[in-house]
Amino acid sequence: MKLNTIYSEITTRFEEVCENPSFEAKELIKHICSLNETEFLLGRNNEISVDVTDKILSLTEKRLIGIPLQYIIGEWDFMGRIFKVGEGVLIPRPETEILCQYVVDMLKGKLSPCVYDLCSGSGCIAISIKLDTPDADVYAVEKSKDAYFYLDTNNKSLCSGSAVTLINGDIFNVDEFKTLPKADVIVSNPPYINSDEISGLQKEVQHEPVMALDGGSDGLDFYRLIITEWKCLLKDDGIFAFECGENQADAISDILKINGFDSLVIKDYNDIDRIVIGRR
Q1: Beta strands in the chain (DSSP E)
Q2: Where on the phi/psi map is residue 214: left (φ > 0), alpha (ψ -120 to 50), or beta?
Q3: Contact status, residue 85 vs residue 91, Cβ threshold 8 Å
Q4: Three-state SS at 204
Q5: Position 201 pLDDT exceeds 80
Q6: How confident is the model at residue 161 (pLDDT cuts 50, 70, 90)?
Q7: pLDDT at 207 over 80
Q8: Pair 78, 150: CB distance under 8 Å
Q9: DSSP annotation string for 206-256
Q10: Are 58 and 79 in contact (CB under 8 A)?
Q11: Would you list the DSSP string of 111-131?
């Protein structure tokens, strides 16, 4: 079968489950056939073997039952780097790159800055900040054993030499972290979905760990905890940097204000308030 034929077939089948079926079909084929973008475009009239075709079709079936493409191929791009992902860890998303880039830009010119990434998951934020700010001391805190596996794997594979300091711990037990040096930035993309909305999420999102999604009855439990309990671990001129859900930025800004912080809200690619920065 020609590559273009199976690409067209999978794209059609993905239309029932994907927002961008042609993109997902292409990414699946590229991964299985070990092709880059140029090779895919130039090789669309090439014949592919029966074994490769069967493998593509088998993985297509997994996607059709709602398993995220990222879990199927086992990795995903974030900030131009490939992070390993799988069952038990939140999938890196483009909106989070906005948060990460803001922190990287803010750290420019600071001497040996200290950064905490709370609810680190795959480590995409912590590791990207470390690689783009080599002089920074970056600490990544993650409670889930499953997610910690990917955090550790990505840290070892992407950070050669000086790596992120990993902590398998619960951020709700803040006293355990008070021996850490004070931070220039505390960054987090915490769970922020309302508990009663979890069951109504897209099928593929429901394959992601509930621990990484459930932010309590109003989705704000982690923001309250981090702002009120972790502010003592910020330097006087330090900042909080959060990703948040739609329509949550104002409430998070209010929590920051109550705790003595001014806020800045940054929109994502769809003009949604997505990033909240808190500064004393």
Answers
A1: 75-78, 81-84, 114-118, 137-141, 165-167, 183-188, 234-243, 262-267, 273-279
A2: beta
A3: yes
A4: coil
A5: no
A6: low
A7: no
A8: no
A9: GGS-GGGTB--TTS-HHHHHHHHHHGGGEEEEEEEEEE--TT-HHHHHHHH
A10: no
A11: SS-EEEEES-TTSHHHHHHHH
Give the integer Cα–Cα distance in Å for 99 and 26.
28
Q: Give the C-alpha separation, 146 to 207, whole Å.
A: 14
For the segment 64-90, the average pLDDT, to the nearest whole number, is 95
Give the pair of three-digit tokens for residue 174.
């803040």
| Length of the chain measured in residues | 280
Name the CA radius of gyration of the chain, rounded.
20
Q: Flag whether pLDDT at 245 surpasses 90.
A: yes
The answer to whether 20 touches 1, Cβ cutoff 8 Å, is: no
Sign of the C-alpha dihedral computed for residues 242, 244, 250 and 255 taken in this order: negative
| 73-78 average pLDDT score | 96
- Strands 262-267 and 234-243, by their bridges, are unpaired
- Cβ-proximal residues to 107 (8 Å cutoff; 6+ apart), any chain: 113, 115, 129, 133, 136, 184, 185
